Amino acid sequence: MVLDKGIAKKTAELLLQINAIKLEPENPFTWASGWKSPIYCDNRIMLSYPKVRNFVREEIAKQVEQLYGKPDVIAGVATGAIGVGILVAEALGLPFVYVRPKPKEHGRQNQIEGYFEAGQSVVVIEDLISTGNSSLNAVKALKEQKADIKGMIAIFTYGFPVSEENFEKEGVELHTLSDYENLIEQASDTNYIQENQLQALLKWKSNPQEWK
Question: How many structural domains does the chain have?
Answer without folding.
Answer: 1
